[in-house]
Amino acid sequence: MSYSLANNKLLYLSLALLLFFSFFLYAFTLETYTIIEEFSVTVRVWFGRFYLWLGLGCVLLLVLLAISRWGSKRLGTPEERPEFSRLAWISMLYSAGMGAGILLRAVQEPVYMKLNPPIANGAPDATVALEYTFYQWGLTAWAFYAVFAIAIGYYLFVRNKKALPSTAFTALTDMITTKRVQRGVLGSIDILAILTTVFGLVAAIGLGTTQIQGGLKHLLGYEFTIGGTIAILLLISVLGATSVLLGMQRGIKVISTWNIYITVALLLFVFVQSDIPAIATRFGSAFYHYLVDFIPLSLAMGPYNPGEAFLTDWTYYYWAFWLAWAPFTGIFIARISRGRTLRELIIGVLLVPSLGTFFWFTVFGESAFDLIAAAGSYDGQFDNVFSSIFVFFESYPYQGLINTITVLLLVSFLVTSLDSAIFVLSMFTDKGTPEPSKRHRLLWSIILTIFSIGILLLGNAKADINVLIAMQKLLIITSLPFALLMVVMIGLFIRDFAKK
Question: Which chain regions cross the lipid bilayer (predicted)?
Answer without folding.
Answer: 12-30, 50-67, 87-107, 134-157, 185-206, 226-246, 258-280, 316-333, 345-363, 405-429, 441-459, 474-494
